[in-house]
Design goal:
With 370 residues, the chain is of the alpha/beta class. The chain contains ten helices and 16 strands. The strands form two sheets. An eleven-stranded mixed sheet has the order 1-8-2-3-7-4-6-5-9-10-11, sandwiched between helices. It has a five-stranded parallel sheet with strand order 14-13-15-12-16, with helices on both faces. Helix 1 crosses helix 4 and helix 7 packs parallel to helix 8. It starts with a strand and ends in an 8-residue tail after the last strand. It binds adenosine monophosphate and magnesium ion. The site of magnesium ion has 3 residues, from loops.
Length: 370
């Protein structure tokens, strides 16, 4: 049984404090606690306790070579986690912490090797969400926490997503309502020069470059997973993925609309139930095209409109919840519209590509004028 405890800001302060104090005690005792952060829900364990950390890998079905992020409550405690702290780390922490930025630094041996999957480094961040911060403060030690989903599934942005994936597998879930950012933190490797962006997220590449000057982009961010050694082991797995096979469709809204319409007709005719995740602009272009005479009728199609294309923040916030919804609606094939990889769009483009297992369809302009 998983106990769900509400800790959102409508819960009276004292009650919330008691719940978080108890959750902190449980973390100290080696138990797992799922909790909200501003990015996605995390599954926490004491990062200094190997048995507790191994429970995370078991509950998620996470491969043992995929390291975890350690969460601290204040910058001052970075020294308990990292063996050395380069100047840029302190500068970035000053600007972006608390917030969705994870720094990869040399690991201190207080953090057990299981956390880092044996790597000599550790990924660390200071989350902004008040529930996460109060929980870590009560635990009074660094908390290792990957996303609180079954390995490979879309990350959880609401407590009900956690319950669906991990219900019965973890003792306690703190329900703090929906997550504000919706995609995971940015992971920046500061152990190499120049620094390398391993995973785009809530802090943008543009923001990092404005502080650090040069920041390289790991080729895995938008490319195929490489077969050689990987710097961020998590990047090599199919991830964020709905159960149904998914394709990413890239192009302008009119071109995407035409391509999607053609594929939907073809697939619905072959008995597939097609799920769409598209922008407002493309939804408009598709218009009645879709509601009219589909083979098999409306039952063959489930459409989720994410938001306007030039608001990648909204795409980010809703992406994982909508992918889960398409799964639950029984989609057998999913088409997802891409976004330009700029600003938060880079994080969205990365998650979409990996949810699609890198199956990309280019929608070429043509036919009617655009
Ligand atoms: P998750 O916590 O599920 O969002 O995944 C954590 C991400 O951080 C994965 O992509 C990991 O590969 C990455 N990560 C964690 N620790 C390290 C590390 N020491 N070096 C490089 N990447 C890391
Ligand atoms: Mg994850």
């Amino acid at each position: 049984m998983t106990r769900v405890v509400r800790v959102d800001d409508r819960v009276p302060r004292e009650e919330r404090r008691r719940a978080l104090a108890e959750a902190g005690r449980r973390l100290r005792a080696g138990e797992l606690v799922a909790f909200p952060t501003e990015t996605v829900y995390g599954l926490g364990a004491d990062a200094t306790n190997p048995a507790a950390v191994r429970r995370i890998f078991a509950a998620k079905g996470r491969p043992a070579d995929n390291p975890l992020i350690v969460h601290i409550e204040q910058v001052e405690r970075l020294r308990e986690v990292a063996a050395t702290i380069p100047g840029p780390a302190l500068e970035l922490a000053g600007l972006f912490w608390p917030g969705p930025l994870t720094l990869v630094l040399p690991r201190r041996d207080t953090i057990c090797p299981e956390v880092s999957a044996g790597l000599p480094t550790v990924a660390v961040r200071c989350p902004e969400h008040p529930v996460a911060r109060e929980l870590i403060a009560f635990a009074d030690r660094p908390v290792a926490a990957p996303s609180a989903n079954l390995s490979g599934r879309p990350s959880p942005t609401r407590a009900e997503h956690v319950l669906r994936d991990l219900g019965g597998r973890i003792p306690l879930l703190l329900d703090g309502g929906p997550c504000r950012v919706g995609v995971e933190s940015t992971v920046l490797d500061l152990t190499s020069r120049p620094p390398v962006l391993l995973r785009p997220g809530g802090v943008t590449l543009e923001e990092l470059r404005s502080v650090l000057g040069r920041v390289d982009l790991d080729p895995g961010v938008l490319g195929e997973p490489h077969s050689g050694p990987v710097r961020s082991p998590g990047m090599k797995y199919r991830h964020y993925a709905p159960a149904a096979p998914a394709w990413l469709v890239e192009g302008t809204p009119p071109a995407v609309a035409r391509k999607v319409f053609q594929l939907v007709k073809e697939w619905a005719g072959a008995g597939e139930r097609v799920g769409l995740l598209i922008s407002e602009e493309t939804a408009q272009q598709l218009g009645e095209l879709l509601s009219a005479d589909l083979p098999g009728g409306g039952g063959t199609l489930q459409v989720e409109v994410v938001g306007p294309r030039d608001h990648p923040e909204e795409y980010a916030r809703r992406l994982f919840a909508l992918l889960r919804r398409l799964d639950e609606a029984g989609a057998s094939r999913i088409l997802m519209e891409g976004v330009p990889p700029v600003g938060m769009g880079l994080a969205v483009a990365n998650r979409l590509r990996r949810a699609a297992g890198h199956q990309v369809i280019k929608a070429e302009p043509g036919g009617a004028p655009e």
